[in-house]
Write the structure tokens for this entry.
Amino acid sequence: MTGERVVAERTTATTALERALLASSMNSGKRLRPKLLAAAARATGGQSTDSKATASAEAIELIHTYSLIHDDLPAMDDDDLRRGRPTLHVAFDEATAILVGDGLQAKAFELIANDDQLSAEQRVALVQCLAKASGFDGMVGGQGLDIEATEKELSLDELKKIHALKTGALITAALVMGGIVGEASASQIAKLRLVGDKIGLAFQIIDDVIDVRSDSATLGKTAGKDAAAGKTTYVALMGLEAAESAALELYRESLSLIAEWDENTDPLRELLAKMVKRDR
Ligand code: GRG
């Protein structure tokens, strides 16, 4: 899905930047955020909304992909393996990786602004939601706190705050954006936001669990990285089993928020389950 359209706009990848863009889009990512967005659009707008979700779904995956490319840079997490392949700055170089990330971010907002399947009001609301969730009040803010917290002992509340911003904000945005596409009511949007907050936290806790339990080949990224880098994790604070139970409890709470919603919500329910029952 994502990236192919961005790449297809270019007939040939002639420059290093275009080749790196192509490489960044051909990956084994789980496409979780676009799937969540599409599922929330279906849950609130029914099947007829499916095609309307395409551009916003692509846009949020572009933001996520940019964040991973920049997170892997030597100045941040300094990693050489992502989605089972060498990270972009290793395969190409740092300048190219920075530029691909910058370009993907701008492209995300262009896709939404140009989406003629949606009203002007919907496009503005989507841009507002995605910009807030990915910027200083969301993912970028969380990444900043995370960098500051390295080698410091954090409390559970401090850890939750970092992850609510760094990981959770974009997951919540995916659900709210789906609601905007599906023309959800204010009360449905409020529920989607709560579902996102709970499942975003559960997703991050499970990330810490599988980081300990799994290996680099299964994860497609370096296993055990956070603990080795002196970062506080849920597993370190709570223990493996308690962390897993906490994630499952958050998952159940998220499901109960949408228990009364009709069968158009089934794809969303299935996705929420996959977010906590996973090995990569
Ligand atoms: C560089 C501004 C900036 C932010 C980086 C996303 C992020 C913030 C850092 C990634 C570090 C990390 C491993 C966070 C844990 C949760 C997470 C976002 C995992 C990656 O998401 P998945 O599992 O990845 O959906 P795929 O590859 O499947 O798309």
